[in-house]
Structures are given as C-alpha cells and as structure tokens.
Amino acid sequence: MSAARSERRRLLAQERYLSPLPVGGAARRAAVVYPHHYAVGMSSLALHTLWRLLAEAGWSVQRAFLSPDPGRGLEHGSRLRDFHLLAFTCAYELDYLNLPRLLEEGGLRPLREERKPEDPLVIAGGPGVTQNPEPLAPLFDLLFIGELEPVWQQLQPALALAAQSKAAALEAAAEIPGVYCPQRPRWRPVVRQMLREVDLFPTVSVAITPEATLSDMVLAEVGRGCPQACRFCLARQLYHPFRPRSLESLLASLLPALSVTRHVGLLGAALSDHPQLLSLCETLAEEGALLSSSSLRVGALTPRLAEVLAQTGAQTLTLAPETGREVLRRQIGKPVSQEQILDAAQAAQKAGIRALKLYFMVALPEETEEDRLAAQLTERELKILDLIAEGLTNREIGQQLYLSEKTVKHHVSDILSKLGMTRRVEAAGFAIRRAARRPQQ
Question: Which of 1.10.10.10, 3.30.70.3340, 3.30.390.50, 3.90.76.10 is the CATH number of 370-436?
C-alpha cells in the first residue's frame, strides 16, 4: 500500500460526520477540489457546502486536496480525469498556483483548450473567482460569479448532463444567471448572484476532524455580507448587503452537533454585527459549547460578550485595528478610536481572556514613515510629543498633564528611543511634520 493511500485512510478514519450524507451511484461522479492541503480545506465552509449540495443532488462525491494525494479523490483515490464533474472553490490568489498542478496530477491538461471533449466538466467559484474571474478563465470550462445557492436548482440539472456530454452541460449551464462560460461570446454581463433568504441554506460543517486547522470544530456561518463601509474589504464588495441568519436557524444547525463535538466556531465577515450574537453565545454556553469566533469588531466587544466567550473556554480573541494610527483608520473607512481599542482590550482582560490577536495591514497608500514610527507610541507619549513640538519644557509638560518632571523625562527618553532619535529637537520636527499631514477637522 502506498504512503499516500495509507494517509488517506488514516484521515478518513478520524472524520466524524455531524449528519449522514446521501451516497450517490457511479452514474454521476463529482470531485470537490480545494487547492490547498487537507487541514486547510476541511476548515473551509465553502468546501462543506459544495460537498453537501452535490451529495444531496444524487452525485457520488469525493474530495480532493493538494495533499495527501494531489490529483486524487480522498475517499477512493480516483484520479480527477475519472470524474464527470470537478468543482473547485478558490478563495485566495496564492492558491491559484496549485490549480495547474492538481489538474496535471489528476491526468488532465491545465489549459481548457487542450483538454478533450470526454474530459470532466471543470467549474470554479468562490471569492477569488467572483472578484476577478479572468486570470482563471484559461483553466476552467465554467466560472461562477457570486453565491451558488440562489440558482442551485437550475444549475444542478445542467451539471448533471456532464455525465453524458460535457458539451450539453456547457450549453445548458451557460444560460443560467451567474455562470460565466469563457469560451462563449458574451452578449450581456454576468450578474453576481446573491442569496436573499440565508436561512433557507444553512452553512455548517458536514464532518469534523482533529486534522483540520480548526480542529474537531463544527463551523457555522452566522450571516453573509457586512453593514460596515471599510474601503479595503473584499467581503464588503462581494457579499453586501448584510444578511444575518436567524437565531432559530443557527441553533437548529448547532445544537444537534453538540452531541458530536463541544467545539463550535462562529464565522462571518460581520460576526459582531449579528443582532442576536449575545443570545446565540449564551444559549450555546448553557448547552456546554466551547466557543471560538472569527475576528470581532472593536466597538462591538462588550464586557458581557467577552465574559460569555471566556466562560466557554475562549483564551484568545481577535480584533482588527488594521493600522496603528487613528487618522489612517478613518481614511480607509474604519473609524475606530484608540480609546475603543483599549476599552475592548480591557473588557477582554477583565473577562479572563489571556491573549488578543490583532490584525494589521502594512504599506497602505496613505501611510508614511512617520505613521509607522508613531504607531509605536502610546496615547500619552503622542500627547507629550505634541507638547514638545509646542516648545514646552519637561516641567511645563508635567504641569499640563499632571505628571512629575521625572516621569515626563522618562517618557521623553522612551519616545526618542522608539523613534530612533537622540535629540529633543528631532522629535519636535517629527511632530510638526506629522501634524501638517493631519486632515483638517
């Protein structure tokens, strides 16, 4: 037995299904392909969603990953060329480089134009495809723009034709909203698809495994889209408007899963904006769930929410200040103050959260070297820096801020060290240049 086959069996033996999936016959064979390793793919709700939809539609479904056995189905080791349908989900541009390898390892030519009529129908979707399908157009027969669920009842019968004729499947699928067929001329734009009633399609894990990046954790999408207006955020552009799932729908998906695992991961681009998030967390906590969450909005982390998360075993929370400077945050559409960040950190600390993970972006177009240096300073140090620029002595600064002259001296020393300067006049010049670039209030 090969090492790859042994590894496939080992991974399958550790999986636990949250509910059984239908087992389709050999008449229609599909592979759901994630262009990264098994641990990453099994932490993707997109993969679980495709897996469930195809199985419930009567397909015999296998999963395929970059490892442990690239180009082969996890369940039975079938090569990708032996399926009727290959459904890829592409979330990240860095994964694109894995796509040609997976196709080649599976016995297929990567370029669409070089594949044979009897080869599988190859389709892709996901955030990467929706934001810009053209880089992937040479590889795929079909590309799906937006959210699959609204047109699934139309698309599934078209894809089923691939078991008899790829040409017939292409012809039928190309007429369905949201489907981009690169080899056909377009007479009208492809319209991004959006699921309006999100409760109709629960998005939750099919199976859990200790080998996933999110180990032994049932994952649930609490909503789609985001009501915020961050200029940099792809999720805001692709998945607006904000559509939270109902509390009843989420509990119907998650409470039965607690008989399989206590670990629950709540996911969403705007998790903190769910109007019933606290009630959801409190109910799950009462049932013994151990909660984890995607990043929380700084202004929405209340002491009570932090307390509930801590009570369920959460030791780390994730916030996304994005930049170290408040001015830059306003410029990118994220008006979060330093005070709000500190308030959130204090709420987490008081609740017993042991660590905070902070997301930052670097090299923003508006960012300067002064911004990067100033981000190292505390609010008090920034205030002292501004007073230095006004020409105040340490004693005068202390009188204004109610600090001793010795304390101010220590702060000035720390400021100079953080800025890589040795003289007070250098710090004053730095503060003046920084103030000149601030937006007028």
Answer: 1.10.10.10
